[in-house]
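Researcher: Dear colleague, please comment on this protein.
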Amino acid sequence: MVPRLAAAAFAAALLTTGCATLRGGPEPGAELVGRTLRMETARGQVTRLSFRPGGEVRARFGRRTLDGRWQASRRRLCFRWPSAPRECWPYRQPFERGRTRTLTSDRGNVLRVTLL
């Protein structure tokens, strides 16, 4: 059961971001710290990712939670979850509150992501 939950959380997390690419601008992913991303799979499963300082992230799906790590760099947002391989999503620009994006991870997972 944990691998299935980790995979769902991982997929949701990978859809969560965009990337700041301007030199001298804010750190990539800065708009995510203290915020939540809502991710939805093609099957309608919803996961919420809460981003914390220091690269910590908490995924919430249903009544379950899973803690992991996140990093934004090189135009990618990557996640590591316990018992799951690392997965990265394109992150070419910062996320905007309320705007939904569709992203595909380097593992082929497709998610609709909205910054809340």
User: Anything to note?
Assistant: The first helix runs from residue 2 to 14.
